Amino acid sequence: MDFDIDFDFDEAEPDDEREPDDEPTADERRARSFPRFGPGRRVGRKFADTWWGNAWIESMERAALDPEQLKRGRRYAFAGQVGSITVSPGRISAAVHDGDQYTPHDTVVRVGTLAAAGWDRLLDRVAAKAGHIAALLDRDMPHDLVQTADDAGVRLLPGYGDLEPECDCPSWDHPCRHAAALAYQAAWLLDRDPFVLLLMRGRGEAELMADLRRRNARRSIAADDAGEAAGTPAEQAYAAPPVALPEPPGPVTGEPLALAPLLAAHEAPGIDAEALGMLAADAAHRARDVLAATRAEPLAPEPDVWCDAVRLAARMPRSAAARRLGEASGRAADLPRAVKAWEYAGAAGVDVVDAVFSPPRELVTRATEALREAGGIDGAAPEVRNWRNRWTVGRDAQVRYGRDGRWYPFRRRAGQWWPAGPPGPDPADALLDLPKD
Question: How far is it, in rounded angstroms, from Cα 75 to Cα 68?
Fold first, then answer.
């Protein structure tokens, strides 16, 4: 199930109460802040998207004393009653309000950090496997990475009792509804970026990547020295039997490589590290697609200029690079809706935002009847108006028929029709799947 989330990773704001001469602590310098999640998220069978996000939730729920507080915490999380979240080594914090009062509660969930010796063992193992580093940069946490940590005697994911909630509300529950809401929303952060979990455990992304680079450099020097000492005679090398080429890579999953934070540390005058990182990541991602293409699943055709601008902007939708793409395309005002369409359905979703064509008459008749029988979003018989490949249901809901034969839900917002969910094979299902405002 697709979720509607905007992310903007910024450094935490300095504490207004700090004295001018006070220097921030090392943990405070590592802190990252995330903007609040708005209300109205769609919910699938599980709360989080990823297995590690759900593992985080299970750890919190197993230690809970009152299931009712968990239910209220979930409602708070979905209703957007948690403020911006700050993550730093050993803790996550946010202001959480009850909805019926103006003063929020200061809420913290503490997480155990790893000792220096544990980090050394873990990073030694991770540095020895390039696939682990690539997975993390792709914002993925494969099971074998967690197994590698376990083999090193390090537990990455929290276990029973590893999460300690704190809140200034008068409740004695463990956790209270405010801390539960914060922990639930933290799972959404972990879904998109496993480095958030590593930061909770004590190390930030830039620090980790610098340490891994140093370890890899030492390994390369040691390997070169060993090669010079041992060596292989030329006649032996040429006499060796041929080696079969590896199988093509499997399907590409995960987010593109997050190179911008690494490039920003070495930014040169006149070079936009964010834009360069996005382009480099996109090139790497497309190269993997080319390698993974098969006759059964060929590479998708090259998009047109507008669709390509949307594709690139969708990589970093809130960045300055995305704004420049909108300006260069001449359709800056249309870009946010197109990016949302891309997130739901890729190039086909972008096409259906603008596409106007006349489907077969039989299809129009069947779709109109199906939408009327669906009963509308609120259960009442709706007014259904058809124009070309678009069916407007009531005032604020619309279903569009795409060139790919799928049905796309739209919702009216501020006088514009916005993509509101993934496409489906049936118009009535697309209407019923629309999220309620």
Answer: 11
